[in-house]
Amino acid sequence: MVKTTIQLNEELWRKFSIKVIQDYGGRKKTDIFEALADAFVNAPDKTIQEALDDWTREQNKRKAKQTKR
Question: pLDDT tens digit string along 20-66?
Fold first, then answer.
């Protein structure tokens, strides 16, 4: 795992943070960036929405496995 710093407009970061919480619950910003970076590198033909949909499906699978335990 690598820790990095990005520079974004403060208002953009605030809106992004709010949208992540509204759409995905909790604090998932790092996960969202990782999903987008993975799609950018490994599946450049995917849209942002497709990459996020894939990430959401994976998160739901993980939650389902955890609740079965």
Answer: 888 888 778 888 888 888 888 998 898 888 988 988 888 888 888 87
Concatenated DSSP letters of 4-66: ------HHHHHHHHHHHHHHH-SS-HHHHHHHHHHHHHH-TTS-HHHHHHHHHHHHHHHHHHH
Q: Do residues 32 and 24 touch, judged by C-beta distance below 8 A?
A: yes
Sorted by sequence, the CB contacts under 8 Å of residue 46 that are 6+ apart come out as: 39, 54
Structure tokens at 20: 């992540």
CA distance 21 to 50: 19
Place of tokens 């992540």: 20
Tokens of 43: 């599946």
* Predicted TM-score (pTM) of this structure: 0.65
